[in-house]
Amino acid sequence: MELLPQLLLAGVVIGSIYALAALGFVLIYKSSRVINFAHGQIIASGAFIAFALTQAGMNLWLAGLIAMVATFLLGMLIERVFLRRMVGEPIIAVIMVTIGLASVIDGLLHLTPYGAGNYSFPTPAVLGGQGIELFGTQLSRIQLTGVLASLALLAGFTYFFNKSTLGITMRAVADDQMAAMSVGTSVERVFALAWAAAGLTAAAAGVILGLMSGLTLGGLAGIGLKVFPVVILGGLDSVAGAIVGGILIGILENLSAGYLDGLVPGGGTREVFPFIILIAVLLVRPYGLFGTKEIERV
Amino acid sequence: MPASRFTQTGNYRTRYQQDQTIFATYAEQASLIVFVLLLLTLPLLLPKTMLRDVNMIMIYAVAVIGLNVTTGYTGLINIGQAAFMGVGAYATALAATRWGLPFFLAIPLGGVAGAVIGTFVGLPSLRLKYLYLAVATLAFQLIFEWSVGHSPLLEQGGAISLPTVQVFGIRDTFLNHNIFWYYLILPVLVALALLWRNVLRTRHGRSLIAVRDNDRAAAAMGIHPGTAKLTAFMIGSFYAGIAGGLFAYFQKAVVIEDYGLSISVQLLAMAIVGGLGSLPGSFLGPLFIVALDRTMEKASQWLGGLNLFPEGVDVTSALRPLSFGLAIVLFLMFEPRGLANWWRLVRMYFKKWPYKF
After folding, report:
1. Which residues cross the membrane (chain A) (predicted)?
2. Which CATH number describes the domain made up of A2-123+135-284?
3. Average pLDDT of A10-20?
């Protein structure tokens, strides 16, 4: 079988980006119980900020870093201006605010010259050469760097949550806001930080995705929808779940593209298969693989 | 009962039956009748081009009433209302083209198809709450779009054109299309709104509200929350199906783009801007969002003519989502109860006018 390792490898590559995107999503949900429908748009704005900087002649790495800082601030700003007022509001109001924000960011991106176009990053010389051979399939340097960068970021955040004081504070707030407040933690600061960190990972995901498959607003913002199967499978409030879920969904969608496309008129099962998995997971194990069990029956 | 049945100066209700009346005074009843009569003459007053938007508003209002049943009254977040509309539209289209059913049978059939699929999609609500359910309906929306796009039976999402309609010897032609459908949609909207207003007064309607406010308390009172939630999904998607059937006939064709995720989001926005869980809001919301959309289209044409923006910027595709998103966010932040609340305040003011106490 030549096909299977190829599909698996492609799955891991795209899955690691899903994991990175899902990480930002989980960070926000874990700390503040907000489902962020605007995550795809934040990913897109990160990618386009980096692209605009490279267009101005900046080095790609530096541009990526600045984009990460910019979305860090953007996340903080969104939390401060919009989400802080929504504390204590019904859940549908909070969800709709993020849906509205997604639309606002969409509109703002369309005001820049990049909104409607299809662009690609200038490939740096380091990433342009021969890829490596793995299990009889080619893995380009861009893909390899993308996977390694995602894994490094994911590992970094896992370390941050387990070892650093700030990370532990954030976990404490996630576990019990009241208790955290009563021992003197600033819950507001943690919320802002969670949004900022989510923005940071979003820009990273956007730049890596932009390097791999080009920059279009629809494609980048569409990752915001792919995040749902990932986090439902992995568990909404689990960082480990985001990683495992991301890679699993990446592999599953590639397997479906490889083996199911021939059975369906028109093919393209990879777009819908994750959502069928989502429904199945919701019916069987709604809290996902690693999530907290808080579902109740009626 | 009030001292006079013509004006209301306070709450004089002493029995539950009085509390359940739809109209407190004759004045309210009369004003509604006058309003509906005014609506009947609207095509004479409005320019012809605007009538098309009015029809869209009325069709969306049907769908938004349905969305209010699930999301507003029962508290089940539904990000798939456009897909339910689509189910109704495609069922209507198939019934009309394959089986040759006339429109007055095909559209209700679309409603029934919507209700059946909606109840089925609502099944996860037996276990799931809040955002899990939101994600489930979102998944249904995407699966629906994909399935239609891949089934040869439904032209892979391309246009299925519907036959022309004839009522009382009047044919739906190019010239009278908007007026023709105006007089067909308006009675449907009024009938469906009255139907829901009355369902709301029954045991079933009130149990939905009880489940929204506190489903455990509702269960303790003998309401089965699962049944109530499925009822809500059934009614809500029935309305969506009817709206879809009307939309299909009004547009003369069914295209998948009319039932996409962005339309679902728009319907949710209409429900929120209008005011969740309010019948007047179900009309005000679509009115506001469609009017905003048209205004922004005009504004962006004007702005685009000024050459303020760099090459490659499409002002229309920027301003529309921007204004739409801002409307949602600002309403949620500053007036979460929506336009219906303003409507209520105006009514309260005039109820006691000119005596303010």
Report:
1. 6-27, 34-54, 60-78, 90-111, 142-161, 190-215, 227-252, 272-290
2. 1.10.3470
3. 87
- pLDDT at A14 exceeding the cut of 80: yes
Alpha helices in B20-102 (DSSP H): 26-45, 48-67, 81-97
- Decide if pLDDT at B115 tops 90: yes
Are the C-beta atoms of B178 and B48 separated by less than 8 Å? yes
Rounded Cα distance, A72 and A200, in Å: 5
Taking contacts as CB-CB distances below 8 angstroms, the residues of chain B near A298 are 126-127, 215, 219, 225-226, 229
Amino acid at B184: L
3-state SS, residue B283: helix
B127-181 pLDDT per residue, tens: 777 778 888 899 999 999 888 888 777 777 777 888 777 777 677 777 778 888 8
Given a contact cutoff of 8 angstroms between Cβ atoms, the answer to whether B127 and A281 are in contact is: no
- Cβ–Cβ gap B276/A92 under 8 Å: yes
CA–CA separation, A253 and A213 (whole Å): 17
Tokens of B251: 């547009």
Summarised one tens digit per residue, pLDDT across range B271-327 is 999 988 888 899 999 999 999 988 888 888 887 777 666 666 777 778 888 888 999
Report CA B357 to chain centroid distance, whole Å. Answer: 36
Nearest chain B Cα to A267, which residue? B150
DSSP B10: S
Q: With contacts defined as CB-CB under 8 Å, which chain A residues touch B324?
A: 100, 103, 107
Residue in B with minimal Cα distance to A105? B322
